[in-house]
Amino acid sequence: MSVLTPTEIPRPSRGGRPRDPSRDGVIRAAILRLLADVGYGALTMDAVASEAGVGKATIYRRWRTKQDLVVDTISDLNRAEATPEDTGSLEGDLRAILRSLVAVITGPTGAATLSLLSTVPHQPALAQAFRNGPLGVWRHAFDQIWARAEGRGEIGPGIAGSVLAETTSALLVQRWLLTGDTVDEAYADEVLETVILPLVRASSVAV
Question: Which of 21, 33, 132, 201 has a 20 to 30 A CA-CA distance from 113?
Answer without folding.
Answer: 21
